[in-house]
């Protein structure tokens, strides 16, 4: 059984969706978890059900000062982080690439890409002296097998993919493992933007028909992989891209 044995973890975007599922799975695996989210009330709702080993912190991951402050709170409450899950993400609506305005483009890249730059600068100096650490970045099948309508979102996840592999090589001598989880579409708050049409059973069925295993990704599917990749059982895995996609990227 995978156990995280009192490891300290930070999960961003932990107020809902994949992040909330990962936080729940980590606490169940005996980790202490900081749930960071732009909406502190949603993170607090999840942390409240998880007990003393969970703490909610409001954090805009696109701002270095807020990331630094969140990491500082983690250190003060639980200690230096052993595991960081860069899950916070956003998208633009599924539409022509020419219809996405610059402000939206910048927001997508700031939240999906620049946030990892900020987090790395904040946590890697705490991991290096211990020669140990795990960083998990959440990508997308859109970074593996992109389709029209989400060009700039797909590009941001493509950047995360290359960033993960480069980080893995650079940080390996410091004992820090860096891996990528790439889910397919899931019934989360971003679903309607991903589809670009109304969230109806008929429209869901059209997208599900492209997934060989015949359903959307469930947040718990991602959470199980996140527990494994952070565990000692995965201690020889770094730079791995793990599609959690029911065969969609084949």
From TrEMBL:
Domain (Ketoreductase): give its ranges: 7-187
Designated name of the protein: SDR family oxidoreductase
What is the protein's species of origin? Alicycliphilus denitrificans
Q: What is the lineage of its organism?
A: Bacteria, Pseudomonadati, Pseudomonadota, Betaproteobacteria, Burkholderiales
Keyword list (alphabetical) reads: Oxidoreductase
- Does this entry carry the keyword Transmembrane helix? no
What top-level branch of life does the organism fall under?
Bacteria
Q: Which InterPro entries match?
A: KR_dom (IPR057326), NAD(P)-bd_dom_sf (IPR036291), Sc_DH/Rdtase_CS (IPR020904), SDR_fam (IPR002347)
- Gene3D superfamilies, per database record: NAD(P)-binding Rossmann-like Domain (3.40.50.720)
Q: What is stated as this protein's family in its record? A: Belongs to the short-chain dehydrogenases/reductases (SDR) family.
Gene Ontology terms, MF aspect? oxidoreductase activity
Family annotation (PANTHER family): OXIDOREDUCTASE, SHORT-CHAIN DEHYDROGENASE/REDUCTASE FAMILY (AFU_ORTHOLOGUE AFUA_5G02870) (PTHR43639), SHORT-CHAIN DEHYDROGENASE_REDUCTASE FAMILY PROTEIN (PTHR43639:SF1)
């Amino acid at each position: 059984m995978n156990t995280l044995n009192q490891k300290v973890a930070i999960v961003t975007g932990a107020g809902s969706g994949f992040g909330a599922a990962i936080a729940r799975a980590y606490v169940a695996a005996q980790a202490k978890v900081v749930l960071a989210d732009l909406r502190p009330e949603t993170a607090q709702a999840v942390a409240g059900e998880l007990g003393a080993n969970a703490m909610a912190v409001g954090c805009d991951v696109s701002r270095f000062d807020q990331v630094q402050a969140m990491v500082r709170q983690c250190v003060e409450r639980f200690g230096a982080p052993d595991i960081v899950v860069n899950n916070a993400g956003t998208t633009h609506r599924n539409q022509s690439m020419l219809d996405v305005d610059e402000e939206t483009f910048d927001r997508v890249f700031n939240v999906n890409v620049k946030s990892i730059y900020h987090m790395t600068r904040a946590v890697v100096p705490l991991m290096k002296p211990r020669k140990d650490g795990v960083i998990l970045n959440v990508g997308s099948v859109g970074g593996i097998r992109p389709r029209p309508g989400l060009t700039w979102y797909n590009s941001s996840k493509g950047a995360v993919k290359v960033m993960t592999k480069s980080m893995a090589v650079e940080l390996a001598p410091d004992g820090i493992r860096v891996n990528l989880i790439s889910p397919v579409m899931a019934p989360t708050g971003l679903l309607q933007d991903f589809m670009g049409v109304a969230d109806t059973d008929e429209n869901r069925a059209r997208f599900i028909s492209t997934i060989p295993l015949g359903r959307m990704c469930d947040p718990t599917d991602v959470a199980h992989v996140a527990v494994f990749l952070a565990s000692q059982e995965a201690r020889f895995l770094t730079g791995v891209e793990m599609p959690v996609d029911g065969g969609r990227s084949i």
